[in-house]
Amino acid sequence: MYVEERKNKNGELISYRLICSGKDTYSGKHKNYTKTIKVQPNLSKKETEHFLKKAQYEFEEEVEKLSKGIRTIENNIMFVDFANQWLDSILIRNPDSYTYYKGAKQHLSVIIPFFKDYQLKNIGPNLIQNFYDSLSANTYEKQIVIVKKSIKELITESELYQHEIAEQIGIHRLTLRMASNVGNQVSMTTAKSICKYFGVPINKYFDITTTSCRYSKATIAGIRTTLVMILSEAKRRLLIDHNYATKEYTKKLTGNVKKKTIFSEDEAKRFVQCILNEQDLRKKAVLSILIMLGLRKGEIAGLCKNDIDFNSNTLSVNRNCIYAGSQFGVKIKSPKTKTSKRTLFMPKMLAEILNEYITWWQEQKLLHGDLWADTDFLFLQENGNVINPCTLTQWVTKFEIKHGFEHVPCHSIRHTATTLMLNSGVPIKVVSQILGHTSEAFTLQVYTHVLQGQQEQASMTYNNFLCGVN
Description:
Layout: E1 2-7, E2 13-23, E3 30-38, H1 45-67, H2 79-93, H3 98-115, H4 125-137, E4 140-147, H5 152-158, H6 162-169, H7 173-178, E5 185-186, H8 188-198, H9 202-205, E6 206-213, H10 217-236, H11 265-276, H12 281-293, H13 297-301, E7 308-309, E8 314-317, E9 320-323, E10 330-333, E11 342-345, H14 348-368, H15 389-402, H16 410-423, H17 428-435, H18 440-446, H19 448-466
Antiparallel strand pairs: 1-2, 2-3, 4-5, 4-6, 7-8, 8-11, 9-10
Helix pairs in contact: 2-3, 3-10, 11-12, 12-14, 12-16, 17-18
């Protein structure tokens, strides 16, 4: 590779001429390929060097392809068309990829409006960087919809079963039930669909407020991953030469880092005491597993009777239950990762609570006889199907409101359990195994703030030891 600097009459550098040795596809003889790169204004010396090196690398890659007879396919495919094809292909390749499909669909609702007028081949690094910058800098409008009047009266008047109404509206039965309870939050799409079905004004049954929000850094990273995957597929099909969405071509992502809301040690202890006084045995069992083992809500929903072994005092995680939206409903899958499938020793208190619950569960199964669904799942809906993980979220929220706790979501209770385990001296390796993390390094990365606090305490303890302070 040889680089020539090209200047104007005033001696100012205006472009670079790249010359790269290759082979003519047809004759097989040596050939020099050339390409002109314009100088980018307002770049520092270091940025200019990086820009030039990247251009050289891309040109060498291009020449190598041309020498081998590989050419990018000429196309006028619009990004939006290709992105939607890619989305549909997710379930074609793997019909069980509900979670991936749902997340990608949400990300595309942000990506497509920005790129909808562009062809695939015209999406360059500057455009993509502008997109990432806009996600970090701009706000978006978020509508919060709260049920202010129950729709139970509308359901009663229809003289149809709830599941029939939900099916006709195109929503899940649980979603319809959520919209029946004053104070619950639903999506704007759900509220509009329900009111359109019953022919009633939306403001009669729902309170709607609009707030300005910023994307978190984690959300932006997820959106970038989806864009990278789409353009990777386009590159694989030779529709584009380079995937400009990758870290190689763009700046480091910025954005708000959401602070994890967890219970303090005193709040967690009070939370446990309130659980012990809970009369509903189902809620008592679920909340106990959350705070004492830190399981994911999908893992709890996927528990079966045989997963609990009182002889060895263990609980096994073998399934993950997810709600994949109204399009797919509740689905049972394998755990999140290979290490998520695990067997855990239960604290004595949890074992006693689950023993009480399973005794009640077995009594209910005998009581209902043939009406009981043919399943051994521990937590069920009223119709006998496996419980929707969203129901567990509702239980936690209502429990916190009832007992005056600050709202801490299900997954943050998992963080609470982890933090308490680490602070109580449980080794990081054991905590990582309990959580089902892929490695101790991942646990260390997520809970660095906790371990830093431990280091400070360890430093004080060691200092007191050396100084002879008791």
